Amino acid sequence: MAAIDTSRSFATTPRFVNRVNRFVAESIGAIADWNDARVTRNSLSKLSARELDDIGLCAGDIDMIATRGAKR
């Protein structure tokens, strides 16, 4: 009869794996932030000066608004 060892814990992972997981998560987060800024910048750029004024912005504010959330 074969014996199976079931006392091994898979909860502990090597430090290297944790570093790789963190790197991947941070990279995906950075790409998502960049994409959000890009979408915001494109949406605001399509508005006229009058529409921007209605929401309290000017054309010079677009880059600042778009990248505000992207900086962590």
Describe this structure in words.
The chain is mainly alpha-helical and 72 residues long. The chain has a domain at 38-72. The protein is built from three helices and no strands. Helix 1 runs antiparallel to helix 3 (62-68). It starts with 14 loop residues before the first helix and ends with a helix. The model has no long low-confidence stretch (mean pLDDT 85).
Report the uncertain regions.
none
The proportion of residues in beta strands is under 5%
Based on CA inertia axes, which overall geometry fits?
Answer: rod-shaped
**Alpha-carbon distance between the termini?**
57 Å
Which H/E pattern describes the elements? HHH
What value does the Rg take, in angstroms? 23 Å
Q: Compute the number of strand runs.
A: 0
> What class, by secondary structure content?
mainly alpha
Major sheet attributes:
none
Helix content: 55-70%
Oligomer: single chain
Mean pLDDT: 85
Number of helices, counting only DSSP H or I runs of 4 residues or more: 3
